[in-house]
Amino acid sequence: MIPRPDYNSLTDVLAKAEADLVASESHGSLCGMLCASGTIELSDWLEQIFEEFDVNNMLVKEASQLLVGLYNNTQAQLNDSDAEFQLLLPEDNESLAQRTEALASWCQGFTYGLAAGGLKKDQKLPQDTAELIKDMVEIARAGHDLGDDSESDEESYMHIYEYVRMGVLLINEELQPSHKASETLQ
Question: Looking at domain 7-178, which CATH architecture does it have?
């Protein structure tokens, strides 16, 4: 099985392949699509990332190989009862501004993925899910002023990261309860 790529490797290959989405946004869109529809074809997700998905383009092919690892890993993590799900974002040693921008892109991708996965704007949703989606739309607008990163800024980022991470798991559970039920029956 192809392993989950790290953020920097995926960022580099997506940039070289001139993808329409950056690494964090790509992962967010995958998670949104999976939460909305339960299962998606790899090709449907890849078509969201590349304007023209050309399997003969070596740069697209290289990026796609890493994306397969992310696709498989994300499906397993979202349906894992141990809550091991992790957002694909820069490591903690990167600047807070870079991590905040990536988290905002991730949330933008997630809300886009919900729509691409079939969630309708006027669809009746569980209250928690509707509130979380609204919050993610707001987080997608987040930014961080360059300058001195305080400990409280770092702590706030970690709280928002965990809120989004657990929120995705809750949204997935509320929109796809059959996946959780079938996992526990096996």
Answer: Up-down Bundle (1.20)
